């Protein structure tokens, strides 16, 4: 492989670094605004932590989907779920941003990465179904764990992503535990806590 091909891949990695500065609406336990890269890291950790309880899964494919699923947000940022007015416009924009981010990669990697992104977006495989469900689980965990600003809408989380978490038995079981925390946080928040 010549140096220009290596440089093209390095350029992709340099551009992807923007995900570290792309902020989400959640907060860490210390109150710092969470980045999309923070979310992606813990989603992959969530997957490997529960991978022994996920039968018949291509773990490498699942991890690739998790790492790539929000990478398009490195271009124009994240739109918090409560502010999304429709899935198609966000999805179309995020896919176009993802494609532009991939522009320096060789064709076979562009194809693979876009195929995995589409698979996730369309929940087109068992791995994508799990990734989508655990993506929602990670968000719920962070919202419960983070030091959120006054008025944070915990109640929103009781329905957030339920169609995805209900579709994966393990995610549904985990969610039942998390929903107890969410309900407690919502009640505490309503009473001025």
TrEMBL record:
Residues 32-149 form the HD/PDEase domain. One of its GO terms (cellular component) is cytoplasm. The keyword rRNA-binding does not apply. SUPFAM superfamilies: HD-domain/PDEase-like. It comes from the Bacteria. SMART domains: HDc (SM00471). One of its GO terms (molecular function) is 5'-deoxynucleotidase activity. Homodimer. This is 5'-deoxynucleotidase. The lineage of its organism: Bacteria, Pseudomonadati, Planctomycetota, Planctomycetia, Planctomycetales.
